[in-house]
Every structure is written in structure tokens, then in C-alpha cells.
Specification:
By secondary structure, the chain is mainly α. It has nine helices and four strands, in the order αββαααααββααα. A two-stranded antiparallel sheet has the order 1-2. β1 and β2 form a beta hairpin.
């Protein structure tokens, strides 16, 4: 009986010793990576301190297309899908009614109430503009005009702001004629601000349409 008791006690000691080897001696936590429990859901809140991301392996948008479209959307409307400005331009990317018609959209209210349609419209317009500006892109991409390195993404952003015709005139006159919209935003600023993004997957299509 005593031997059995010694055996059990020894077994417990051995198990406890081995188990302790799998526990970290010191638990560390990052104070900014918080978890809030609410309605049975967990939310991870990232840091507001830029230094916390130094050498981080977390993927960010960088020059990817998602960063491009979100940057343009924020510039145009602060990313608001139901935004209508004082000139009547609509949605997250601020489309004009006539522009929407060229890509097959005729219902203003349906457009304003459909984020998915707006995202598809943005892609369709990029495709159409890329087709119409294909010669400009081929000729000027990589060139430096007025101190700005010209890229495909910058050209397409400028076309979104002022239209294909204005972009062609800008390059025809080597950037010496400035186009500005009704709010004073210039093509040059869009060429610079939205240059260097990856828009390579956008297919040039003269008949691009949402419908």
C-alpha cells in the first residue's frame, strides 16, 4: 500500500515537472494590441504609433490597387458612397451623370445606393480610359514632365478627374497648359499624388460596362 502511494506521488511530481517546461517563464503582451469583448465578437485594434510597425511583416496596401482606389475614393468623397457634391457628382468616386451613361448606368438612385455598383463602375471607367489613353501611356510612362515621373496610375487618375480629353491636351502641350476642375484641383496634382500604383491588371477595353 505504501509502495503504491509512493508510486502515485512520484508520478504526480514527474507530470508536474514536465508540464512546467511548456509554460513560458514570462508572459509578454503588446499594450496596443487590445481585444474588446462585445456582443460575443472580438475586435483587434492596431496601434496608432507608427514606430510599432517598424520592420513589421504585416501586409499593407502599399502601391497595390486597393490602396490606389481607396486613396482616390477618399480624395473624392472621403470614401462616402452616398456623397453628392455641389456640382451633382455622385458617390465615392464622384461620377458625373454623363460619364455613368458611358459605362451603362442610367439609374442615379440605384447607383448611389449600391457600393458594389460603384466599385464596378470605377473599374469599368479605368478600363475605358486605359483604352482611350493607351497611346499616351505607351509614349509618356516613365518620362519626367514638370518634375513629375509619369506613370499609368497617375494618368488614369488624372483622367478620372478631368476626362480623357484634358489629359491628352496636357501631354500634347508637355504640361504647359494646366487643367483645374471647378474646385481648383489640377491634373498635375493627380498625376503626382496617384502615381506609382499598380494598375497593370486593368484591361484596356473600349466597351467596358457595368451592365
Amino acid at each position: 500500500m505504501i509502495k503504491k502511494w509512493y508510486y502515485c506521488a512520484s508520478l504526480i511530481v514527474v507530470v508536474a515537472f514536465l508540464s512546467s517546461g511548456f509554460k513560458p517563464s514570462k508572459l509578454e503582451s503588446t499594450p496596443w494590441f487590445l481585444i474588446h469583448e462585445a456582443d460575443d465578437s472580438s475586435y483587434l485594434l492596431p496601434s496608432l504609433n507608427v514606430d510599432d510597425y517598424t520592420n513589421s511583416e504585416i501586409p499593407y496596401t502599399g502601391t497595390f490597387f486597393i490602396g490606389y482606389k481607396e486613396a482616390i475614393g477618399f480624395k473624392e468623397s472621403q470614401g462616402k458612397y452616398k456623397k453628392i457634391n455641389s456640382l451633382g457628382y455622385l458617390g465615392k468616386y464622384q461620377f458625373g451623370i454623363e460619364t455613368l451613361k458611358t459605362i451603362g448606368i442610367h439609374n442615379r438612385n440605384a447607383f448611389l445606393n449600391s457600393p458594389r455598383m460603384q466599385e464596378k463602375a470605377f473599374i469599368a471607367l479605368l478600363s475605358k480610359n486605359k483604352w482611350e489613353l493607351r497611346d499616351v501611356i505607351e509614349k509618356y510612362e516613365g518620362a519626367v514632365i514638370n518634375g513629375i515621373r509619369i506613370t499609368e496610375s497617375g494618368i488614369l487618375a488624372a483622367a478620372h478627374l478631368g476626362g480623357v480629353g484634358s489629359v491628352k491636351k496636357y501631354f500634347r502641350y508637355k504640361g504647359k497648359r494646366y487643367f483645374k476642375d471647378a474646385y481648383g484641383t489640377s491634373l498635375r496634382s493627380y498625376l503626382k499624388k496617384f502615381g506609382g500604383y499598380d494598375t497593370s491588371f486593368i484591361i484596356a477595353d473600349s466597351s467596358a460596362s457595368v451592365i
